[in-house]
Amino acid sequence: MRSDPTGSGSGGPDPAATSAGSGPPASGGMVAADDLVRARKQLLDGGSRTRRLDTVALRQALVDLHEFWLTTKGAELGIKPDSGFAIVAVGGLGRRELLPYSDLDLVLLHDDLDPAVVSEVADRLWYPLWDAHIKLDHSVRTVPQALQVASSDLTAALGLLEARHIAGDVELSNLLIGGVRRQWRTGIRSRFDELVEQSRARWARSGEIAHRAEPDIKNGRGGLRDIQLLSALAIAQLTDAVPGLGPQTPGGGLAFAHERLLDVRTELHRVAGRARDQLRAQDADEIGAALRIGDRFDLARMLSDSARTISYSVDVGLRTAGNALPRRGLSRLRRVPVRRPLDEGVVEHAGEVVLARDAKPNKDPGLIMRVAAAAAQTGMPISASTLNRLSDSAPELREPWPKEALDDLLVLLGSGRNTIAVIEALDRTGLWGRLLPEWGAIRDLPPRDAVHTWTVDRHLVETAAYASGFTTRVSRPDLLVLGALLHDIGKGRGGDHSLVGAELANQIGNRLGLWPSDVAVLSAMVRYHLLLPETATRRDLDDPATVRMVAEALDGDTVVLELLYALAEADSLATGPGVWGDWKSSLIRELVRRCRMVMAGEQLPTPDPIDPEHAALAEDGGVHVLLQPAEGAHTYTVTVVAPDTLGLLSDAAGVLALHSLRVLSASLGSHRGAAVNSFTVAPRFGAPPQAGLLRQELIRAIAGELDLVAMLEEKEQQALAEQALDRGTEGVPVQYAQAPPRIIWFDTPVEGQVILELRAEDRLGLLCRLASVLERHGADIRWARVATLGASVVDAFCLHLGDTDSRVTREEFEEAMLAVVPAPRPRKSGDAVDGATEGGTG
């Protein structure tokens, strides 16, 4: 038996909870609370005179009934104003959320009265309830005793924060309620870590309501205990009671989510005929029908929506509360958090992504995607106020999307596990549905197959996160992550979801501004995303007709084949444990190998033609730097024409990187002894520097006055260190990649000339570092094509290696180039392994 007011069990008399040295008297002469039991039963059963109450009315009726009984009984026992006694309710009655079979949690307060009197009053209050078999958690305390318990027991403190006066001396109740809240506010700094640890332990035990077949409505992540956690943070004045949710929140916001979970738990008690927190599968249809929600799948969808709204609110609340407390470790040295630019109109402040002071969200449609991309790349959360401001003010993106917005979407999708939290935050605040209106049909849609772990929308985001680790396997990493995000978009609409999804992919691809050929590839990925796994596991691979069927379905397109191969693995990994294994992997790999033998080989990369105006500048001689606006609102074309000397490419790329110009694409060529290098760039923030300044810096670099690689390294390490400091972490900052880098060699008909293709993730000044490696190893770069696709780069260099031993030279190049690209994250046991290099033929 517990003597604190927050216990979840029930029990009989507890002498220790009444008065020292006096045992409870026998219950003779005390009338059991049979009238209370009969009234409760009538409310639950209904009858000819009592219609069946809905859940809200039932909870209110139960609260009124118990308050009336306690008030009446208290008056009978002399628990009146100025009596020195007070009855205080905690738990469900304290919150006015009493459920049909909830425990009755009560505290009998007394003003340090005679122990014998206190014992007699307590016994005459508790015994009728015990004799009527009403579940009771009770304690008898003075105000100082109750405050002492609250100061040493976190669970008791959280319970007493919900205390509410029922009967007797209201001033005595106010002393307790006010004292507990003041004590909580003044002591929260020392108790916050314990509060967070306790919550995480509860989540670990009970799981996520949104993704559990039989969720714990009370204790699971996103459940009713988390609502109480938010209330406790608000009482501590660390956060608002309803943080981070705007008017466009799916499902109606936090208050509505709270109400719906209460309704489900109320009906769960009524259906089970006893106290129960876990929703069993066999009860779901009956509860869904009683609440007029629908069948068990409709109920599961509603629960997912509500729980995810609450979970997001808790994340915001804990983060806001943590930021309000003093920092520890190295981060405490930074007294005033700086505002560090991340992108145009986007800055970092106090470990969160926020809008710059001069940002104008009502006039900047692409700001939402820039904020999301910055959050995903840095791993920092988006400020709740920023999300609300964007939700209130940001206009719709025009169709087709600007190239910059599409690029930011690709950065978001290519950021691995960071992607999940960012999309969840956008979705819970109504922004994701604004970007992708088709998302509404799959939001919180429960899976029909038990093998699936996640709701359909979360499964798509999980698949994109896994696919980001495979981007270097394919030549089109941008289409891989887009296809991963959309492959099940056709579910929840009736019909074959692959065919429905292919049509939606066409619609979405056109809206995003993809080239028509890319839209066709994206649509094919969605339509045929089950082709490889179903064929490999259900058909005879030794039958030539099987391979021909796959090749014909894909029109012999090797790009689509490799995309579907990577998507099949990402889709399986995102489905659930054990779905992807050696058997399935080997079958699909063999099917793909045979299909590649039937299909045509890959074409060699080729150089871009040189603009006649640039050719004329090359013939004039000298160093020229041209800066012109490109098609996008924040993109520019920088053309460098200079004598073709060793190191020019690395010098030009390094100067651009030092001036915070991100290279989106590049075309490198030569004309009559002069290099003609064109870069499409985007400033990370603000306007680009003047062309004259870039030319001066380039001339200094060519003359050897600038060590660009060392300067870039210092700039990158400083940014990573500042980011780690703002997060309150210590140690040497390391930049990891989601996908392992990959190098592919192609032989050409020209003696001593090869094409090297690098697939890797981007980093500050990567092109400068790569060019420096090639030049340092004596390679003559004849031409190059560079493309940045979201967070990934696909760079092709045509190299003349001279008379050196090509085998040894290739190994040296690979080792040196892999040393300057972001390193893959340390692998965990069971992770798939992908080769770093690969040979090809022209």
Automatic annotation (TrEMBL):
Q: Does the keyword Nucleotide-binding apply?
A: no
Q: Which domain of life is it from?
A: Bacteria
User: Any inhibitors or activators noted?
Assistant: Uridylyltransferase (UTase) activity is inhibited by glutamine, while glutamine activates uridylyl-removing (UR) activity.
Drop me one GO molecular function for this one: [protein-PII] uridylyltransferase activity
Q: What spans are recorded as compositionally biased (Low complexity)?
A: 1-29
One Pfam family assigned to this protein is: GlnD_UR_UTase
| E.C. designation(s) | 2.7.7.59, 3.1.4.-
Q: Which cofactor does it need?
A: Mg(2+)
Q: Where is this region: Uridylyltransferase?
A: 1-341
Domain (HD): give its ranges: 456-557
> So what does this thing catalyse?
[protein-PII]-uridylyl-L-tyrosine + H2O = [protein-PII]-L-tyrosine + UMP + H(+); [protein-PII]-L-tyrosine + UTP = [protein-PII]-uridylyl-L-tyrosine + diphosphate
Q: Which CDD domains match?
A: ACT_UUR-ACR-like
For this UniProt record, give its keywords in alphabetical order, as a comma-separated list. Answer: Hydrolase, Magnesium, Multifunctional enzyme, Nucleotidyltransferase, Repeat, Transferase
The function of this protein is: Modifies, by uridylylation and deuridylylation, the PII regulatory proteins (GlnB and homologs), in response to the nitrogen status of the cell that GlnD senses through the glutamine level. Under low glutamine levels, catalyzes the conversion of the PII proteins and UTP to PII-UMP and PPi, while under higher glutamine levels, GlnD hydrolyzes PII-UMP to PII and UMP (deuridylylation). Thus, controls uridylylation state and activity of the PII proteins, and plays an important role in the regulation of nitrogen metabolism.
Q: Which family does it belong to?
A: Belongs to the GlnD family.
Q: What is this protein called?
A: Bifunctional uridylyltransferase/uridylyl-removing enzyme
Biological source species = Rhodococcus daqingensis
